[in-house]
Amino acid sequence: MVLMPWNQFKPQGSYQTLLGSQISYWMILKIKRMMVLDLMSSLLILKLPKPPLGTLMQFVIQLIKPFTRDKKSVDIRGRSEGSPKRRKTRKKDGLVNSPETLTASDKECSETGGSTEAPMENSALKDALGGRHIGKLYVSNKEIGRGSNGTVVFEGSYDGRQVAVKRLLRSHNDIAEKETQNLIISDHDPNIVRLYGCDYDSDFVYISLERCHCSLADLIQKHSYLSSGESVSNNEASFSIKSKISNVKGMDVELWTHDGLPSAQLLKLMRDVVAGLVHLHDLGIIHRDLKPQNVLISAGGPIRAKLSDMGISKHLQDDMTSVSHHGTGFGSSGWRAPEQLRHGRQTRAMDLFSLGCLIFYCITKGKHPFGEYYERDVNIANNRFDLFMVDYIPEAVHLISHLLQPNPEARPTAVYVMHHPLFWSPELRLSFLRDTSDRIEKTSETDLINTLESIGSLAFGGKWGEKLDAALVTDMGRYRKYNFGSIRDLLRYIRNKSGHYRELSDDLKGILGSLPEGFDRYFASRFPKLLIEVYKVLWVHCKDEEAFSKYFKGS
């Protein structure tokens, strides 16, 4: 097939003809909802000739015009906002409504596609305040979110409990059934959004879900704006961030420390996501659409992250590790694994790839390892990612680089991720270094010792004593000699100082900080690669030993 060069394209012509001659039917459907960045991404993926920017902009204007003309938002009943109410006509046997013409809004959540057009509802009981009752469910008119395939989320209550009501068209009943089935299977896990009920009327399916305060994307975006001094109220990149967060009283939402490291709170939220994946994967469920927008934040008690939006999740049958791909379009652009883009076999590893992107997103205040939105899919397909923004956290580089492996079989399991050093507490970090020191002090295995010593240039470079405060160097000379070029001696020094911390003078305690948090921070700031480099060596030599089993779970 010969493709029409972009420089011969005339914007006033029929764009359907142009697209139909070059791009498959599924792409035409997707382009209906594309904005400029989506179109640019598609051109890169399809390797079409790059048009001049002006021609591209004219094309986009012509492309979206038929789908944006006279669009208005709709309420829960499908009625256009601001449209005049039709006068009711009286008949002998009562009142009847004249028919209404329906329109829809094109407003969508960040990076979520889908039309919101919906037919008029007929069978649900209307409420005096504009909402409606369907059995135990009450659905208000207050919209709190939108998704793909015409999905709208409203405030509501189910049997007296405040819930989020996810409304889907009856034509997408298969999606609703899949989501409810997998939520039922995974029910009562603290890191999965809870399902309360599923109701129907003649036009819609209503899924009643646990009400959360905001999404992980909202939380990250709001606090990244605040940390940069930008006002949330003046930024439209996130949907209702300010109102969602302002309702959370007394919630500690410090996400990054003053030196840019992820806070204990943020690490906990990321680990919640991993724990949710562990639970799903144990049940044989692949989420298939993991992204920050599909992780919700609950603060009814300790702040917690919960996986949601499982409408395209897949339940593997017993003893199955993968399924063949059938159909297209699952997952969200920029968050799909390479095999999803190629429509290859679906395995749990797809979720681990998306998790790598999500962890990077959290640490970097909303950035993506595969670049800007319009170029992510093509970069994922070509394995082009950049982790320079997390270089200052070697544990993050190690984990994310493994999660983003193009080969699904090379990615770690969710259980492994949950126990990775990135998520270790200060106490566990120090415990690992102490146990390693004990292990090599008692061994004559030259292979293990030589391998450890070979990483000295990576772990500390030069002489490690030169990176310590002078008072510590003076103090250590009172007890024994240390070889500043040996990683074995550095581990011994850390072990001895932590083991005899109470015996240290107040001045030395002031330098090292409190045990374990300050103590760990002192050595991590001077030798940031020490922990992960030692971990990599022990992974090869000692991961199967009982003494190190707690450090290498899921291996």
Give an overview of the whole structure.
With 555 residues, the chain is an alpha+beta fold. The protein has four domains: 6-68, no CATH class; 103-210, 2-Layer Sandwich (Phosphorylase Kinase, domain 1); 214-323 and 330-422, Transferase(Phosphotransferase) domain 1 (Transferase(Phosphotransferase), domain 1); 426-548, de novo design (two linked rop proteins), CATH 1.20.1440.180. It contains 21 helices and 16 strands. It has helices spanning 15-22, 25-31, 36-46, 53-68, 173-185, 216-227, 241-246, 264-282, 338-341, 349-363, 376-381, 394-403, 414-418, 426-441, 446-454, 456-459, 470-476, 487-499, 506-512, 517-526, 530-542; strands at 89-91, 94-96, 125-126, 132-134, 137-146, 152-158, 161-169, 195-200, 204-210, 214-215, 285-286, 295-298, 304-307, 314-315, 322-323, 346-347. The strands form five sheets. It has a seven-stranded antiparallel beta sheet with strand order 3-4-5-6-7-9-8, with helices on one face. Strands 10-12-13 form a three-stranded antiparallel beta sheet. A hairpin with a 2-residue loop joins β4 (132-134) and β5 (137-146). α14 packs across α18 (487-499) and α14 packs across α20 (517-526). The longest helix is centred in the middle third of the chain and has 19 residues, at 264-282. Residues 138-423 form the Protein kinase domain. It is found in: Endoplasmic reticulum membrane. This is non-specific serine/threonine protein kinase. Residues 73-124 are annotated as: Disordered. It is a single-pass type I membrane protein.
Chart the SSEs and their pairings.
Elements: H1 15-22, H2 25-31, H3 36-46, H4 53-68, E1 89-91, E2 94-96, E3 125-126, E4 132-134, E5 137-146, E6 152-158, E7 161-169, H5 173-185, E8 195-200, E9 204-210, E10 214-215, H6 216-227, H7 241-246, H8 264-282, E11 285-286, E12 295-298, E13 304-307, E14 314-315, E15 322-323, H9 338-341, E16 346-347, H10 349-363, H11 376-381, H12 394-403, H13 414-418, H14 426-441, H15 446-454, H16 456-459, H17 470-476, H18 487-499, H19 506-512, H20 517-526, H21 530-542
Antiparallel strand pairs: 1-2, 3-4, 4-5, 5-6, 6-7, 7-9, 8-9, 10-12, 11-14, 12-13, 15-16
